[in-house]
C-alpha cells in the first residue's frame, strides 16, 4: 500500500538556516510561543482522546487505535518539555478554545456513529495540520525542540496513513459522507491557520508555507484514498467558500 513518508533528514537539514533562527529569549517570541506551544500540546491531547473514541466505533481496530493514542501522549510530554526548556507557560485556555469547532464536530459525529467523519477530522485534517506545522517549525526551532519535533512528525505520518488506508478500503460506501465531512470541516482548518498566522510569524513560520504544506499533505492523502485530481480540486475548494 502507498505510504506517505516524512521529509528525509537530509531534506530537513537543507531547510535549516542556523544563522537565521529567531531570538528565543525575547518577550515577543515567548508570548507567541505560549500559544503555539499550547496548540500543539492540546492537539496531541485531543488526538489521544479522539483515537480512543474512534476505537469504540471500530472495535476490531481498538488495539491499534489505542497504540496510536499512546504515541500522542508521548508527543504531548515532549512538547510540554519544549515549553519548559524556554521558560514558557503554555496558554492552554487559548488552545482549548482554538480547537472548539473541530472538537464539537468530532463529538457530534461520534455520538451519531459516523466513523468516516471522525476519521476525516482526526486522521486526515488534524494530522495534516500538525504535519504542516511541524515541517515549517523544525527549521526555525531551538535545538531542544528540533530533536523532539523531528521524531514526532514521523509518528504523525503513521497516523495520517492509518486514516488514509481505512478510508481507501471503504471508499465505495463512504464517499458521500467523506465529501460532506470535508465541506463541513475544511473551512475550520483554513480559519485556524488564519487565526494562528501572527503568532506563527513571530516564531519564524510563514502562513503561506503552512497553508502550502497542509494542502500537500491533505491532497496527497485524498489521492491515495482514491479521489481523482478533479475531485480533489473540488474538495479543496470547500476551504474557500466555507
Number of strands: 0
Class derived from helix and strand content: mainly alpha
Low-pLDDT ranges: 1-17
Distance between the termini: 33 Å
Question: Secondary-structure element sequence?
Answer: HHHHHHHHHHH
Supply database-style keywords.
242 residues; mainly alpha; 0% strand
Describe the structure in your own words:
The chain is mostly helical. It contains eleven helices and no strands. The chain has helices at residues 9-15, 27-57, 62-85, 92-98, 100-111, 115-137, 143-169, 171-202, 207-225, 229-236, 238-241. Helix 5 (100-111) runs antiparallel to helix 6 (115-137), helix 6 (115-137) runs antiparallel to helix 7 (143-169) and helix 8 packs antiparallel against helix 9. The longest helix is centred in the last third of the chain and has 32 residues, at 171-202. The chain starts with 8 loop residues before the first helix and ends with a helix.
Amino acid at each position: 500500500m502507498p505510504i506517505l513518508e516524512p521529509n528525509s533528514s537530509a531534506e530537513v537539514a537543507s531547510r535549516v538556516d542556523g544563522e537565521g533562527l529567531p531570538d528565543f529569549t525575547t518577550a515577543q517570541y515567548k508570548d507567541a510561543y505560549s500559544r503555539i506551544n499550547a496548540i500543539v500540546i492540546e492537539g496531541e491531547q485531543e488526538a489521544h482522546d479522539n483515537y480512543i473514541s474512534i476505537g469504540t466505533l471500530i472495535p476490531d481496530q481498538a488495539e491499534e487505535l489505542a497504540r496510536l493514542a499512546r504515541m500522542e501522549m508521548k508527543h504531548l510530554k515532549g512538547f510540554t518539555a519544549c515549553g519548559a526548556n524556554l521558560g514558557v507557560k503554555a496558554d492552554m485556555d487559548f488552545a482549548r478554545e482554538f480547537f472548539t469547532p473541530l472538537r464539537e464536530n468530532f463529538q457530534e459525529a461520534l455520538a451519531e456513529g459516523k466513523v468516516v467523519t471522525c476519521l476525516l477530522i482526526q486522521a486526515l485534517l488534524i494530522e495534516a495540520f500538525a504535519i504542516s506545522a511541524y515541517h515549517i517549525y523544525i527549521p526555525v526551532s531551538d535545538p531542544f525542540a528540533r530533536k523532539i519535533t523531528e521524531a514526532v512528525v514521523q509518528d504523525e505520518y503513521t497516523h495520517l496513513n492509518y486514516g488514509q488506508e481505512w478510508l481507501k478500503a471503504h471508499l465505495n460506501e463512504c464517499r458521500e459522507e467523506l465529501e460532506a465531512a470535508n465541506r463541513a470541516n475544511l473551512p475550520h482548518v483554513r480559519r485556524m491557520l488564519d487565526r494562528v498566522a501572527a503568532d506563527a510569524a513571530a516564531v519564524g513560520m510563514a502562513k503561506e508555507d503552512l497553508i502550502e504544506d497542509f494542502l500537500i499533505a491533505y491532497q496527497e492523502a485524498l489521492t491515495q484514498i482514491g479521489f481523482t485530481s478533479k475531485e480533489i480540486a473540488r474538495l479543496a475548494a470547500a476551504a474557500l467558500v466555507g
